[in-house]
Amino acid sequence: MGNSRLRNICLVIIFVLLACAEPLITSRFYKFVLALAVINVIMVTGLHVIFGLTGQIFMGMAGFWGIGSYILALATTKMGLGFWPALILSSVGVGFMGVVLGIPTLRLKGYYLSITTIGFGEITRFILMNWSAVTGGVFGVFNIPRPHFGGFVLTNDAHFYYFSLALAAILAVVAAILEDSKYGTAFKGVRDDELAADAIGIDSTGIKVMAFVTCGLFVGIGAGLYSSLLTYISPEVFTLEESFRFVTMVLVGGIGFLPGAIVGAVVLTFLPEMLRFLQAWYLAIYGLIVLGIVIYQPGGIAGALQGFLERRRLARGEGKQYGTA
Amino acid sequence: MRRIVGVVLAVMLLATCSVNAAEPVYIGAMGAITGGSAISGEQASQGLALAEEDINAAGGVLGRPVKIIMEDSRGLPTGGVTAARKLIFQDNVVGIIGCHQSTVVMAIEPLIRQEGVICMAKGSADMITAAGNPWIVRVREYDTLAASAKVRHAIDKGYTRFAIFHNTDQFGEGGRQNLIDALARHGLEPVAVEAHNTGDKDFTAQLLNIRRADPEVLIVWTHGDEHALICRQVAQLLPDVQYYGSMAITQWSSIQMAEGTSEGAYTTSPYSYLNPDPDVQAFVKRHEERYGRPPETFTVLYYDSAMMLAEAIRRAGTTDRAKVLEELKNIKGWKGVSGIEYSFDEKGEAFNELFICRIENQQPVIIEKVSVN
Amino acid sequence: MQQIVAGLALGSIYGLVALGYNFIFNAVGIVNLAQGDFVMLGGYIYGGTLTLLLGLPFLPALVLTAIAMAIFGIISQRIVYYPLRDAHPRMVMLSTIALGIFLKNISLIAWGTYPVSVSGLFGQRGLRIAGVSILYQYIFILICVIILLAIQQFFFKKTTVGKSMRAVAQDRLAAMLMGIDAYKMIAITFAYSSTLAAIGGVLLAPVFMVSQVLANVGLKGFAACVIGGWGDITGAVIGGLVVGLVEVFSASYISSVYKDAIVFAILIGFLIFRPQGILGRATEVSL
């Protein structure tokens, strides 16, 4: 994996497909799901940095998502900020939470880190629910505005979609550049063997904090777009199950391969909607699918793709050998 | 699950037999089928299955069969918004019955307004009709109604020291505020207010705080599971306090779960399966034969809503949503299987009366019927 | 006083769950994040199927639940652990979470959405001494926890199987070279910890009822393990009691709505500043 040329080709294909998908989908329902999918793509791009590249199982995505959504919602409706400053504020705000959460990681690894992030997510939800003086509590926040360019407001779902898609593409490029930089190497070093990374002089704690912050900056933007798309948010959404759903997106796509994570986000946004006919069975089957992937296809979609390319290369190579012999 | 599938199949068969193969009229519904409040969704879908059967047995509407599509909101705004979009844009429903969670109704409120779809909400928070959305009507007792009825009943019995114990979700927070307002109208203040989160199992700490305030009455505002456990723990810690519960404690399932500890508790409820009214009893009997237990409040409320919506479509003579809404709001004095007579007012509230019930011998006995005026 | 009793009662429940975590950790060196869901499943089998459906009395129901869960434990280790035995521990973590989601939702389908309520041996009867009341069921739970603690202690320190398990946990390869059948040991481990979960479910059903939410005791049990200190069996129970007391007292004197948040905050505090737990036995946790 990690072949950056393959990654770039896949990214281009994915974003072109996503751009073409909007007019091809006729149902206004699935258009909306597509917009949600792109927002999840942005957030998963953030998670890719911390989980896919750095290998930390971050189970507090719902906390980041919740904080980001609330920052944009409160900044626009209560503080009277415009959409743009509010979006930047939510990105920076969640990035700052990355620092807050990153500090404990100075001493924590593996399970302990994951449990800490579970705790972070749950504490965040309790605060969003119960600190009603600031957050509006369980009644949620209403009338969150859509983005605007000058006087042009993106009330049209298609406009909103392309706007989100453009942001998603920019952020994917940023993530790809980051991955190819020396920081990307450090991220992967920490993921593959933290002790070895320390030994060759990588500051593994600093790298983890940096990964958390990057994740926060990305998720803040996705979360802001989320509350703008829905125009109403309330705190009981941001649960541990949702955090795990984001982790699953990366897992389904393939840990460490950005296009995989993006495909995972799109697939896992559409899957529940397309499987609605399963009704109560859906979540049980979802659990089984995840279990199956972890055990039998731990590389996810990306792993399957790579296996396919590998086999084809081998087959071609063998063919040549026969030809010359 | 197998039973539900069976019912759905039976209903589909029946629908295809009794009415000819005309394009059905679609009615949407939503509730939690998965997630923590899945119990409400199950009750709702049972009511809807029976309603679909009855509507189609009576020849459907406009000479066409009716098909009720129930979608999973998971009881959460995120799930509700996609479910509502699916119902509106995929299934082109005339109206949506539900959701039973106020937050979900608030989350779909902008969409309902924008697309002009009827929403027969089942959330009890005051803000649902206060939002002034002409497309939203409510077929459920609303919180101010329930709160003032409880407070008035307790004050009539001579109690003055009230404690409030509420859930921290939207339902409980709204209830707490309404109770405090209702008490204030009688010049009273609660002696203690305590809260718990959904899913909590142990309430000792809060109940002890309440015990220190020495109340005569404890009003609990929460859902079924928590209610049953609170009843048990109140019986241990505050045996002498008069208990006033939420609608949930009249539910057959809650009474079983409380194992006798809800005995003597009062509550307000839109429905009791003990109501001697023949319409109610006929429905209870039918439900028991089908599902093996009496219908619960959401079962009858979803059933009644579907029946009223079908009637409105018949009266309007079209599936045009605006005309159907107009006819729906013209419904006055509609007798439901809940035992309540629904009359929609200008705010869209169908309820203006409510029962006071008392748990006696593990049964929710109706003590009196109270009305708004 | 009533608070202390309530805290200890609640704490003994968490301690019971913590014993299950602790056992698997000591024997295999992994954390089964579906432990809470195992407890829920035990409760459903006992309450939903054996008691309500088949009408069995308490003891046969308990034994059958334990046997069913032991078999289930062996099957689930074969599915979620065995194929991943050489993979990174993070994959085991994900697979146990996925198993948990599956169990929660399949129980919803199998046993319905209505919480299962059973009376157990004592129903809602309790004791009242000097104004302090406690359910008999809680006393029963506390006694069971102490007995199980003694058994577990004895098992690891005195029996050959127990010693072999510790060897497997510390160094699987070395243990196998010494002729210990490591994979059989791991199967036994899962069988026993699932039995613990079964007992947990049976004991909790009368006080908490059985529903999806019951699985949440898993997180508290985990907190108990961390606070008590991983390698230590007594620590798990003490950790449980501490979590119970913290929960009740923070609900009484700080905030009832933030009590779970406070437990989490203390958990995180322990993870950061005292990862070896209260008892502080110097077992290096290399997760």
Protein described:
The complex is a heterotrimer of chains A (325), B (373) and C (287). In chain A, 76% of the residues lie in helices and 1% in strands. Chain A has 325 residues and is an all-alpha fold. Chain A has one domain (4-273): ABC transporter involved in vitamin B12 uptake, BtuC (Orthogonal Bundle), CATH 1.10.3470. Chain A has a two-stranded antiparallel ribbon. The two termini of chain A are 32 Å apart. Chain B is α/β, with parallel strands linked by helices and 373 residues long. Chain B folds into two domains: 2-140 and 277-342, Rossmann fold (3-Layer(aba) Sandwich); 143-269 and 355-371, Rossmann fold (3-Layer(aba) Sandwich), CATH 3.40.50.2300. In chain B, 46% of the residues lie in helices and 18% in strands. Chain B contains 13 helices and 14 strands. Chain B has a seven-stranded mixed β-sheet, sandwiched between helices. The model of chain B has no long low-confidence stretch (mean pLDDT 89). Mean pLDDT of chain C is 86; it is low at 282-287. Chain C has one domain (2-214). A two-stranded antiparallel ribbon of chain C has the order 1-2. In chain C, helix 5 runs antiparallel to helix 8. The radius of gyration of chain C is 18 Å and the shape is globular. Chains A and C meet through helix 5, helix 11 and helix 13 of A and helix 4, helix 9 and helix 11 of C.
Summary keywords:
heterotrimer, B: 373 residues, alpha/beta, Rossmann fold, 2 domains, seven-stranded mixed beta sheet, five-stranded parallel beta sheet, 13 helices, globular, C: 287 residues, mainly alpha, two-stranded antiparallel sheet, 11 helices, 2 strands, disordered C terminus
Write the layout of secondary structure elements.
The complex is a heterotrimer of chains A (325), B (373) and C (287).
Chain A: H1 4-24, H2 28-53, H3 61-77, H4 83-102, H5 110-130, H6 132-135, E1 148-149, E2 152-153, H7 157-180, H8 182-192, H9 194-199, H10 204-230, H11 240-253, H12 258-274, H13 282-296, H14 300-324
Antiparallel strand pairs in A: 1-2
Helix pairs in contact in A: 1-7, 1-12, 2-7, 2-8, 2-10, 2-11, 2-12, 3-4, 3-5, 3-10, 4-10, 7-8, 7-10, 8-10, 11-12, 11-14
Chain B: H1 2-18, E1 25-31, H2 38-57, E2 66-72, H3 77-90, E3 95-97, H4 102-115, E4 118-121, H5 127-130, E5 136-138, H6 143-156, E6 162-167, H7 170-185, E7 192-196, H8 204-212, E8 217-221, H9 224-237, E9 242-245, H10 252-258, E10 266-269, H11 278-291, H12 297-316, H13 321-330, E11 334-335, E12 341-342, E13 353-360, E14 363-371
Parallel strand pairs in B: 1-2, 1-3, 3-4, 4-5, 6-7, 6-8, 8-9, 9-10
Antiparallel strand pairs in B: 10-13, 11-12, 13-14
Chain C: H1 2-28, H2 35-53, H3 58-81, H4 89-111, E1 126-129, E2 132-135, H5 136-158, H6 160-170, H7 172-177, H8 182-208, H9 217-228, H10 233-253, H11 259-273
Antiparallel strand pairs in C: 1-2
Helix pairs in contact in C: 1-5, 1-6, 1-8, 1-9, 1-10, 2-3, 2-4, 2-8, 2-9, 3-8, 5-6, 5-8, 6-8, 9-10, 9-11, 10-11
